Amino acid sequence: MSFFRKLSRFFDNEHYKKNPVPQNLTKEQFTAINVGAINAEQTGYYCDSLTTGSDVDGIKENLADYYGIEDRESAVGTLQWLFGRGHRVFFDAIKDAASGKAGIINCDELEDDERERADEFLENLRGSIDELIEEKFLASREELALHSITAWDMGRFVLVTRCCFDAGYISEEEAWHCINSALAECRKFYSSWEELASDYVIGRAMWSGYGMTLIGIMTKAQNLLSDAESPWKRVQFGEAGK
Q1: Which of 37, 167, 170, 179 fits a disulfide with 174 by CB distance 3.0 to 4.6 angstroms?
Q2: Contact by Cβ (8 Å): 137, 198
Q3: What share of the chain is helix, strand, coil (3-state, %, to 5)?
């Protein structure tokens, strides 16, 4: 284990924050909320309710700064993009090149203004492969071609949905529709929290490259998978039901 990973674990204070007012979520709702568990651990949001438990003014500021969301129209547009396209279009374009299966990026589905960013994402991913393998989020470089980063986009989709609800940009009914749709989409690709965690981390590696932030995300994912108090230990990912 590297020095920086040890340092990340030392300062990591995850506690799976719970809403003090019981929400009586169904098992399916709880599972769906925790598609975004890694994001919730980053931000200190509740793991057991639709509302995040965070300050609304702070939520609005973060939505504006990080996602360009300032009202209902921009909220709906961003949520539609995250669910329908997101960063998956970039990963699908670069994964064969990153895995060594192909020599160049497949730009067929990219807009002209997205191609430069695809080059950046490819370098980020290539620079993270050794650490992804070392920490067992990836079996081999070649295996990248078999992955999806649906987990990365859907985790962010759940986070942004919850924030948009707290900000008053979307209704409770709309929020649950989005969050339940995220779970359904993930179940097309994953049968366990382990699989979801791996592809979330791979997506993050593509976006940010290797560094302390990625190490922190890996630690959060590993803790969610192993801690007895983790929300991921309360429900099986593929277990549909009430």
Answers
A1: 170
A2: yes
A3: 65, 0, 35
